[in-house]
Design a protein that fits this description.
alpha+beta; ten-stranded mixed beta sheet; 7 helices; globular; binds coenzyme A
Length: 246
């Protein structure tokens, strides 16, 4: 199901993670900016994490004038499963749904793969580095155990050990989503991720999806290279800003 988020809300998960009263505004426009700020003052928010369309420069500049600073640029991609030919030279790697008992392995792998990552948490010097690393690990773990976060987690194994994972969600009845993915640093560059994307396309197709959507950060060239090989194309971009109120 497609859930509609309010234009600004308190983020329990960020509060729990960083012990800071945090709000999120997923789609700021010039028309909503003032009400987002008013909400934050009213709720004594310390940190606001806000996104706006990257092509909406009026809003970008209004946010900059109000003390927001850029923490990442998110690129959104889409792939049409029914018409896109399969990628070539995908290595044969054992890929299966995550089994009960493997959740901690996925969590530990995510911790290694996302250490010092390029996302908006890590780009904010006021946030604790270790907690930023843990955010992705905890997201990966929760994806393995909670159906509201993920419909499937596929894992890649070689010689019995975990090399990578991909979190999948049916975003809408005809649209699957690649939510979170990573390959262990020691296994990167050998096609593990390409094999995971192939398996993810097959899983989404089996669920009745006609297309797949996903997103990443602008400097993440590796992941975009793989998506391009698998027929994904860029649809739009968002800027993420942080604003501190103290
Ligand atoms: C992104 C990631 C999943 C890719 O996994 P992988 O198994 O290494 O991917 P593959 O081996 O299938 O392909 C990666 C390709 O990108 C290339 N590549 C890697 N880093 C690159 C860089 N900085 N610039 C350009 N190309 C790069 C690799 O050489 C390879 O291309 P090649 O096949 O032509 O040699 C992995 O690097 C990772 O886990 N990174 C940290 C977490 C992350 O970014 N997750 C994705 C969030 S959206």
């Amino acid at each position: 199901m497609d859930s509609v988020l309010p234009h600004v809300y308190l983020s329990d998960i960020d509060k729990e993670r960083f012990a800071i009263e945090t709000a999120r505004a997923p789609e700021v426009t010039i028309e909503t900016l003032q009400s987002v700020l008013d909400f934050c003052y009213e709720h004594t928010v310390q940190l606001l994490i806000a996104r706006c369309n990257a092509s909406d420069l009026k809003t970008v500049q209004a946010m900059e004038s109000n003390g927001f600073f850029l923490t990442d640029t998110l690129l959104y991609y889409q792939c049409d499963i029914l018409t896109t030919p399969a990628a070539r030279n995908v290595p044969h790697i054992n890929i299966s749904p995550v089994h009960p008992g493997e959740e901690d392995m996925v969590k530990n792998m995510a911790y290694e793969a996302f250490r010092g990552y390029i996302g908006h948490y890590h780009a904010d010097p006021k946030l604790d580095r270790q907690k930023c690393d843990e955010a992705y690990a905890s997201w990966a773990y929760r994806s393995c155990i909670r159906k509201d976060i993920a419909d499937q987690v596929l894992v890649a194994k070689q010689d019995g050990s975990l090399k990578g994972f991909i979190v999948l969600k049916m975003h809408k009845p005809e649209e699957g989503q690649l939510v979170l993915n990573a390959v262990h640093p020691e296994a990167q560059g050998s096609g593990v991720y390409s094999a995971l994307v192939s398996a993810a396309k097959e899983w989404c197709f089996q669920q009745g999806a006609k297309r797949i959507t996903t997103s990443t950060h602008l400097p993440n060239i590796a992941v975009q290279k793989v998506w391009a090989r698998h027929g994904f194309w860029l649809t739009h971009a968002d800027c993420t800003f942080h604003k501190w109120f103290d």
